[in-house]
Amino acid sequence: MSARGRHRAVVVGAGLAGTAACLDLAARGWDVTLLESRSRLGGRAYSFSRDGLEVDTGQHVVLRCYEEYLGLLGRMGVTSLVGFQDRMDIPVLRPGARPARLRRTRTGPAPLHLLPTLAGYSVLTPTERAGAVRAMLALRRLDPDDPATDRQSLGGWLRAHGQGARVREALWGLVVVPALNIDVEAASLALAARVFRTGLLERATAGDIGVPEAPLSALHDEAARRSLARAGVRVRTRERVSAVEVTEEGCTVRTADGETAADAVVTAVPHDQAARLLPVQVAPRKEEWATLGSSAIVNVHLRYDRPVTDLPFGATVGSPVQWFFDRTRTGGADDPAGGQYLVVSLSAADDVLDEPAERLVDVHRRAMADLFPRAAGARLVDGFVTREPRATFRQCAGSAARRPPAATASPHVALAGAWTATGWPDTLEGAVRSGLAATRVIGSPTTHRTERSVMVR
Ligand SMILES: Cc1cc2nc3c(=O)[nH]c(=O)nc-3n(C[C@H](O)[C@H](O)[C@H](O)COP(=O)(O)OP(=O)(O)OC[C@H]3O[C@@H](n4cnc5c(N)ncnc54)[C@H](O)[C@@H]3O)c2cc1C
Fold first, then answer.
1. Which protein residues are within 6 Å of ligand 1, measured from CB?
2. pTM above 0.85?
């Protein structure tokens, strides 16, 4: 019980999972404290300033089906900071070829809306497009929650469904590599089925793409702080939790500065940290979490002296540039000099993680010149690289069985984090869902007390 006479909950980790958990626990009547090791909130989805630019550590994309994430932005009053397309429309560029696009029709129910989308996708031959439609309809019949689906790799399944190397790269890879941060061959079939079903096959508007129109920290740090303060959540940054001790009565959360007693704890930290913090009695299978591993994302930032493309973003085929985004306005680079700030986003990037920055900048500067004639004549004013070695867990076949549910062996402790068993990929949406799932496990102070006494007896 806190000095305020209320039951105390501590949330460890101020990423999207932790922020969502805090706001929900506060709404349920808990007295909430948030402990975060860094000086800022937002976890992996943050931005920083560099030479007058606001730089997202990695470009983030939001889909209209991110209902819980958009709900959280709504609660924080910043939904308007994500700009959505009026319909899914992905320009697909190839060096030396006419641009193609994956664009849904304005009308028509799912999944029929995909027929004209694929029919107009000129990167594939008519036979390949027909085969892709058949495979998508077969994918729609898969159950993403079936463990047998997760044991299969997407690559194997696609080959068994007649999808050749070109279609795997130019269609499936275009979506799966950024969505799951892993190559098509190794990706979990269950998570791929989740992405295609929820994002493309069940609701026509679900796959419309949104891009933050403010630096990520404006949403996930500044707006989050305001919301948490309004909800009465105590936020303590630069507080690294070293252990969570659990008894039948409650928990003690240890930091370098001392300890905090709590009736309930939500850990909303990456899997290696959660395994380190929690005792084995609370998380008997924690050894397994390390096998979820990690997968990198690298962004190459290119600042030109003049505009080189009018596209807000796009994907590529046959180029090292996977996806690119125009960040001129969001990054604060829309100066009178009229330059353009583009970001190349490379997912499943473990193989380029250790490449020197100069080389990555040079490779992608040349690749952009192959895609955009105007880039060939433009001067690169600045080029730099951001790297997130542990951007997501490795979302490969068989990973679902190793993702733990929110509930632990203790009624006082719940797990959150986009790596837990949300059924969703490691995304902003998965993170928020995990935070909400954890608070459902903890419940309200009254139900928590009742259930705890039943378990203790
Ligand atoms: C470069 C990049 C690009 C991405 N692109 C997309 C995208 O386009 N769309 C999308 O939906 N998702 C994307 N993601 C994934 C998305 O960012 C994550 O899934 C999400 O942010 C994870 O949130 P989380 O709260 O689960 O974990 P985290 O954000 O990792 O938060 C955990 C927090 O816990 C803190 N912490 C750790 N240990 C301790 C400790 N001992 N004590 C106290 N605090 C601790 C950390 O400092 C951190 O703030 C991307 C990720 C990256 C890195």
1. 12-18, 35-38, 43-45, 57-58, 60-61, 240-241, 268-270, 273, 297, 388, 391-392, 417-418, 426-431
2. yes
318 and 328 together in one domain:
yes
E-state strands within 355-403: 380-392
Please, which pLDDT band fits residue 456 given cuts at 50, 70 and 90? very low
Q: How far is the CA of 106 from the centre of ligand 1 (A)?
A: 34
Residue 457: band (very low, low, confident or very high) from pLDDT cuts 50, 70, 90: very low
Kindly report the protein residue whose alpha carbon is nearest to atom 52 of ligand 1. 391
Both 430 and 285 in one domain: the answer is: yes
Range(s) of the domain holding residue 185: 86-207
Per-residue model confidence as pLDDT tens digits over 220-242: 999 999 999 999 999 999 999 99
**Strand 31-35, strand 8-12: pairing:** parallel
The alpha helices in 107-173, defined as continuous H runs, are 114-119, 126-140, 147-150, 154-160, 165-167
Same domain, 160 and 16: no
Show the CA angle centred on residue 244, arms to residues 242 and 246, nearest 5°. 160
> Distances in Å between the alpha carbon of 59 and those of 213, 276, 323, 386, 397?
11, 29, 10, 10, 26
Same domain? For 202 and 99 the reply is: yes
> What does residue 297 show for φ and ψ, rounded to 5 degrees?
-130, 135
- Rounded to the nearest angstrom, the distance between the alpha carbon of 39 and the centre of ligand 1 is 15
Residue 174, Cβ density class (10 Å: 0-12 exposed, 13-18 middle, ≥19 buried): buried
Q: How many domains does the chain have?
A: 3
Which of 206, 202, 200, 163 minimizes the C-alpha distance to 184?
Answer: 163
Strands (E), 37-88: 47-50, 53-56, 62-63, 82-84
Burial label, 188 (beta-carbon count in 10 A; 0-12, 13-18, 19+): buried
